Structure formats: structure tokens, C-alpha cells
Amino acid sequence: MLRYHTVPVTAFQQNCSIVWCDTTHRAAIVDPGGDLPRLRAEVERLGLQLEQIWLTHAHIDHAGGAGQLARELGLPIVGPHEGDRFWIDALPQQSKMFGFPVSEGFTPTRWLHDGDTVNVGECSLQVRHCPGHTPGHVVFFSPEAGRAFVGDVLFEGSIGRTDFPGGDHQTLIDSITQRLWPMGDDVVFVPGHGPESSFGAERRTNPFVRGT
Questions:
Q1: Burial code of 113-140, b = ≥16 C-beta within 10 A, e = fewer?
Q2: b/e per residue, 171-190, with b = 16+ CB within 10 A?
Q3: Cα dihedral sign for 180, 186, 191, 194?
Q4: Quick check: 120 and 19 in contact, CB under 8 A?
Q5: Mean pLDDT in the chain?
Q6: What's the rounded Cα separation, in Å, for the pair 53 and 55?
Q7: What is the per-residue pLDDT for 124?
Q8: Where is the Metallo-beta-lactamase domain positioned along the sequence (predicted)?
Q9: Which pLDDT does position 91 carry in this prediction?
């Protein structure tokens, strides 16, 4: 069974999730944007073997620590979709713009595409390409656990911003309604910021996508 533990990191309080297989204790870390000593301490506290870095997208608060963590621990970086290549290339500029520590550059070990799968231990998660917030944004979905790690696509009561380069409002709405909703109303999602919610709750109450 897939398990996870979410740790808010950076001044942006970005939800970095440590996900692992409860049978093997092999783990991946989703969106290590920063505060790497704290994240490594949590992995050790949980008694896990960290084997991969998964990225939903390449904004600084989600990907800022990925290059350093990959180098220090010899880990592959999986994701996002190659549509975010320009955001990865711009990580040093993003660091300066938002007052983050200088981010190490990297090239993902594996780009992800809609319909791919990622595996950690005996657990398999589906990959859905959900552009709109960024062109290369992806979501990780575990049908078994009824959980989706959606980055900045959807939040409790809100949706991702689309005013950054490569963002597009209608594309984001289409990603939510065509890629997320079919996963099921009961699915609980872990957003990039703020509290968890369910797709059903957002379909009923979220003013940006209510009734879609």
C-alpha cells in the first residue's frame, strides 16, 4: 500500500510529499523545493530508502532543491513533462527573482508523458499531463490509495495561477475537467499549497470549476 507524508517547505509553504511503499519502505520525494536538511531528516525518521525524485512542474518552490538532492544522494529526477524544460533552464533566474538560494541546474533522468506510470517499491502511480499552470505540469495518481499529487493544478477552493509564461487559463480548466475529474469524486488530492481536499468537494464548491 502507498503511504505518504507531506512537509511544507520554503517561504512559499510548498507541500513536498514523501511517498513510499509500505511493504518495501522504498520511497520517492515529490517536489523537493527546498529545506533539504529537514526533508532528509524526515526520510531518516520514517526509516525509508529514498530512491527517486518526482517533479510535478519546474517552478522554483517545487523544483529548487531537486538538482542538489539528486547530486548529494545520487538519485534520478523523474518528470516533469518536457514542456517545462524552459522553466528548468530558468531556475537560476527564478532563484534570484523570488529570493531563494541559488538552485542547481539539472536535466531530468526521465521526462514524463500522459499515460506513463512511475513505480516506488511495489506501488504504481499513473501519470497525467495537466498543462495550464505550466506547459509541462504532470499529476501523480494512485488508484489503489485513492490519492493524487496534483502540484499547482488545483487547490481547496482555488486553481493554479496562469499569468506566468506558458500558463493558459482555459487549458488549465480543461486539464482539471478532462484529466482530474475522471479519477473519481472520492479521490483525495494533495495540492502544491494548502490543505488536502477531494475532487468531489471541489466540483461542488470550488468557484472556478464548480459544476464542471
A1: eeebebebbebebbbbbbbbbbbbbbbb
A2: bbbebbeebbbebeeebebb
A3: positive
A4: yes
A5: 97
A6: 7
A7: 98
A8: 13-193
A9: 96
Q: In this model, does residue 27 exceed pLDDT 90?
A: yes
With 0-12 / 13-18 / 19 or more C-beta atoms within 10 angstroms meaning exposed / middle / buried, residue 159 is buried
Domain 2-205: CATH class, spelled out: alpha beta
Per-residue pLDDT of 43-52, as tens digits, reads 999 999 999 9
- Sequence-distant (≥ 6) Cβ neighbours of residue 52 within 8 angstroms: 27, 28, 29, 75, 76, 78, 118, 120
Q: What are the Cα distances from residue 32, in Å, to 61, 101, 165, 167, 199?
A: 8, 13, 22, 22, 24
Structure confidence at residue 148 as a pLDDT band (50, 70, 90): very high
With a cut of 90, say whether residue 211 has pLDDT above it: no
Q: If we measure between CA atoms, which residue out of 29, 170, 116 comes closest to residue 162?
A: 170
| Residue range 80-95: mean pLDDT, rounded | 97
Bond from prior residue into 80 cis (ω within 30 degrees of 0): yes
| Residue 125 CA to its chain's centroid (Å) | 13
- Grid coordinates representing 188 are 483525495
Contacts of 10 (CB under 8 A, 6+ apart): 33, 34, 35, 61, 64, 100
Confidence band for 131, pLDDT divided at 50, 70 and 90: very high
